[in-house]
């Protein structure tokens, strides 16, 4: 599940510790402030920020701290190898020298095909860059993200700081409650593979004037792919999933969609006030709102089904110059009373039990439940080689992370059912492993008063998810704060 932003309401540190992190944070705050103050400004002299020692140090720390840092690219080198065998100081100095002299050249990314859950024969193609390329991409992102974030619109939530999937779901629920009940549930076909490089670079040039930075971005786009069969392939289009800078580039490309559909909501636009929206609808026109998470998005329409078809045609026209198209298999028009799935949630407008009032409710979709059960079955199969303590710890991690993602949906009964499912799987595993009868198993796992004891081993206890609090997520709208506030000295 997505993990690109912290949970709703979590605390952020007011101050950044002294050192490279503080220096980079101050640089980002200035860039963001300048970009927000002058939307038409094109930035020069950014390349010095990219190869600054502090930027490269912070970039490497982020690469090494990411789980992907343990995965090697085509050169077979991991982040741990850099620290233990090559030496971090020498590695960063050499990388900085290559950037300054213009000798740096990205290597092809290593292709890895990942099966798509629940879709037999379908795979997702990931590209794994070498560690040096990942560090440079992370440095580029540190410099570019504050600039482009100043222009990104609040209806986009994927791969953006301090934003998460729950914010997108909360906006859908909020707009559905206020009459937006026709839904274009859309998906862009092979978005990361098909983005037109020329169109993308044109949008980057709208804000970036530094030729060295532009050349570096283009070099990563054209780096190529080393397939699993060891064949080199060119990349005439797209930005391979797996690259650190790829989500930012995808958001830059797809912001054209946000700007087109959200434009009427801007100050002075035809949707900018409740009175204007009401007047439009009284004349038979429709109003709409896009909610986007990376290449998955929905358009909520307050109007008729015919209006949704018209919006769909507009979207196809906007995406075409970027080399993109809507997926015919995954794009559909539904009324919110039918319900639809988005980011793992099932959203539906339905009557409240025992009343005649209707509300928009958020449930857990069937696919995430089915996939979690499959993971639990794999962990608790009778032939599992894991010791009980390791097994329980793994279950706590898998189930806990899943439940915290979905804890803002109507999930209490689902959590209880999953706990019961897991309990019986563990009971079956232990009985098989120790050849216990039901009577012997019950004797070992109950108190003298007959109460069941929790499964535990070597200090590790299976916690389950039923007791995780289910709370409503607060709709934050445009109130999500920027992460680039000038640090206090």
Descriptive report:
This protein has 489 residues and is of the alpha+beta class. It has three domains: 19-151 and 197-236, no CATH class; 156-196 and 245-364, Reverse transcriptase/Diguanylate cyclase domain (Alpha-Beta Plaits, 2-Layer Sandwich), CATH 3.30.70; 366-461, no CATH class. The protein is 44% helix and 13% strand. It has 17 helices and 13 strands. The chain has helices spanning 20-37, 47-50, 53-65, 79-86, 88-101, 131-149, 165-177, 191-194, 197-205, 211-221, 246-262, 274-282, 305-319, 366-379, 388-406, 412-434, 438-444; strands at 109-115, 123-128, 182-187, 225-226, 232-233, 287-293, 296-302, 332-335, 340-342, 345-351, 358-364, 456-457, 460-461. Strands 2-1-4-5 form a four-stranded mixed β-sheet, with no helix packed on it. Helix 1 (20-37) packs across helix 3 (53-65) and helix 3 (53-65) crosses helix 6. The longest helix is centred in the C-terminal third of the chain and has 23 residues, at 412-434. It is globular. Residues 1-14 have low confidence and may be disordered.
What structural keywords apply?
489 residues; 17 helices; DNA/RNA_pol_sf; Group_II_RT_mat; alpha+beta; Alpha-Beta Plaits; 3 domains; single chain; GrpII_Intron_Splice-Mob/Def; RNA-directed DNA polymerase activity; transferase
């Amino acid at each position: 599940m997505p993990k690109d932003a912290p949970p709703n309401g979590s605390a952020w540190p007011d101050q950044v510790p002294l050192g490279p992190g503080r220096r980079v944070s101050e640089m980002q705050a200035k860039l963001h402030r300048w970009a927000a103050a002058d939307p038409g400004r094109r930035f020069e002299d950014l390349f010095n920020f990219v190869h600054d020692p502090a930027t490269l140090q912070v970039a490497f720390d982020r690469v090494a701290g990411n789980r992907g840092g343990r995965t090697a690219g085509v050169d077979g080198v991991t982040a741990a190898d850099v620290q233990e065998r090559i030496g971090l100081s020498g590695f960063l100095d050499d990388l900085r020298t290559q950037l300054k002299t213009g000798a740096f050249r990205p290597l092809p990314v290593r292709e890895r095909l990942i099966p798509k859950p629940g879709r037999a024969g379908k795979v997702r193609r990931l590209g794994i860059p070498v560690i040096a390329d990942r560090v440079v991409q992370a440095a580029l992102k540190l410099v570019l993200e504050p600039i482009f974030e100043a222009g990104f619109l609040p209806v986009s939530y994927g791969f953006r700081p301090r934003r998460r999937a729950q914010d997108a779901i909360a906006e859908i629920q909020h707009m559905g409650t206020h009459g937006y009940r026709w839904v274009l549930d859309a998906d862009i076909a092979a978005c990361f593979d098909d983005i037109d490089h020329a169109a993308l670079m044109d949008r980057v040039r709208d804000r970036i004037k530094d030729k060295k930075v532009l050349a570096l971005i283009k070099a990563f786009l054209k780096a190529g792919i080393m397939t699993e069969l060891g064949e080199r392939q060119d990349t005439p289009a797209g930005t391979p999933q797996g690259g650190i800078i790829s989500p930012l580039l995808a958001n830059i490309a797809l912001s054209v969609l946000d700007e087109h559909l959200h434009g009427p909501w801007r100050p002075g636009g035809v949707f900018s006030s409740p009175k204007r929206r009401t007047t439009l609808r009284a004349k038979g026109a429709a109003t709409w709102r896009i909610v986007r998470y990376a290449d998955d998005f929905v358009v909520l329409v307050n109007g008729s089904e015919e209006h949704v078809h018209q919006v769909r045609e507009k979207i196809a026209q906007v995406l075409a110059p970027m080399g993109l198209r809507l997926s015919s298999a995954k794009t559909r028009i539904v009324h919110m009373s039918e319900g639809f799935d988005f980011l793992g949630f099932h959203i539906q407008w339905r009557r409240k039990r025992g009343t005649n009032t209707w509300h928009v409710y958020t449930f857990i979709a069937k696919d995430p439940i089915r996939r979690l059960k499959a993971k639990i079955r794999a962990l608790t199969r009778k032939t599992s080689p894991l010791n009980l303590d390791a097994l329980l710890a793994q279950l706590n991690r898998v189930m806990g992370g899943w439940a915290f993602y979905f804890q803002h949906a109507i999930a209490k009964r689902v959590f209880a059912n999953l706990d019961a499912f897991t309990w019986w799987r563990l009971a079956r595993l232990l009985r098989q492993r120790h050849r216990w009868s039901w009577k012997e198993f019950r004797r070992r796992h109950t108190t003298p008063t007959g109460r069941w004891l929790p499964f535990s081993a070597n200090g590790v206890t299976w916690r389950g998810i039923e007791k995780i609090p289910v709370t409503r997520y607060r709709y934050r709208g445009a109130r999500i704060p920027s992460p680039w506030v000038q640090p206090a000295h």
